[in-house]
Amino acid sequence: MSITKKRLFISWLPLAIMWIVMAIEQPMITSAISRLSDATNQLAAFGYSFALALFIEGPVVQMLSAGTAVTTSVSSYKKILKIMHYLAFITTFLHILFCIPAVFNFTAIQIFNLPQQLLSSAYWCFFVMIPWSATIGYRRLWQGIMIKHHRSKYVPIVMYIRIILAFIVLFIGLKIENMSGAVLGGLTLSLGVISGMISAYILAKPALVKLPQSDVENLSLKQMINFYIPLAITSWITLGIRPLLNLGITKGTFAVESLAVWPVVLAYLFLYTSISQSVQEIVIAEYKKENLKVIKSFVNNVAISLSLLFALIYIIKPLWGLWFINVSKLPTPLLAYLPITLGVLIFLPFCSANISFYRATLVAERQTTSITIGVFINIATLVISILLLPYIFDVAGVYIAATAYSLSFLFEVIFLLSRVTYLKKVKRIL
User: Fold this and answer.
1) What is the pLDDT of residues 148-164, one digit of tens each?
2) Which of 34, 223, 318, 353 is deepest in the core (most CB within 10 A)?
3) What's the confidence (pLDDT) of residue 243?
4) Is pLDDT of 57 > 80?
5) What pTM was computed for the model?
6) C-beta separation of 37 from 116 below 8 A
């Protein structure tokens, strides 16, 4: 049965809400940190540790797409769950490895040039985030199963629970004198993802007990691994961008100020890109030749709407000032870095929505290697940019990060468009 935009919107809305609620968490945390003492250094320390944790988390992120794409039977679920067990062990082991003080200090100082005054807060923030990767992987797998088996309306409930817990933890943290803002941020994230994992399993259980024993496709474990590896590499490289951007930031001028501004800007940007990312699972779940033109039109509407909203708020300074001053409580000296930074990032929502559509199409067509190549292009663009730009322009590090980030998305979307266009000609998928 072909899909309508109305039905597509009803299916997509719970996922968009899930991403929006999740996106709210980061501004909540940075806003709380900004209200504590030593705000600039604590924001910078939190931004570094969060980026490093995201890098380690990378391989589990695509469990949402994998759960949506392949969990059609008990047999397929057990195979993808087994892969998740392996990833949970590997990512947790890596996180603990980086928690060894000598390893953490060497990475932070010698590789990423982290200012010395940020080291202690960054370390303890990262330490309390040990459960981060594994719990996120399991939660995303079970959310993918909910999406696959028409329980997407329950997906946002997981995030409601997480955001309520985050609010409680931050409220308590703000009442404690001399609380480290970076540590409070890390603790909030850890407790939130643990609650998310538990609630996701409970809500996915009704779908799990109804799974048939086997299916027609019946991928072997080796085939499942071959399917997932490119996705894991994709998300790992994508999230690896964040610590690399920190490296670019520290090579520019005003390094500490830029490190403090950047996580706040990313949290704001994530409000837009998170909505666009939510279309990926819907494209996978509804993927049929007769549906794709309607889906593509819907994604275009989402991309254009988000871009116009971002541009409108950017043009009307009091609006973005309301967010960064009143909500995020960004220290006043750091506000001066926002106009140029946000201007450079203005096309990110549009690019993000299109990347989500093209990646989903390639996942559904089992062309995941093309996704990985696209991400390699993304990362190559970013690395070249952060290495060259500081030598070409004597500007604040946050401007270097924003420019590199924008260029990396632009080149990836161009490549993915070329791959999907090729499939369109060869397989007539659109």
Assistant:
1) 887 878 888 888 899 99
2) 353
3) 66
4) yes
5) 0.74
6) no
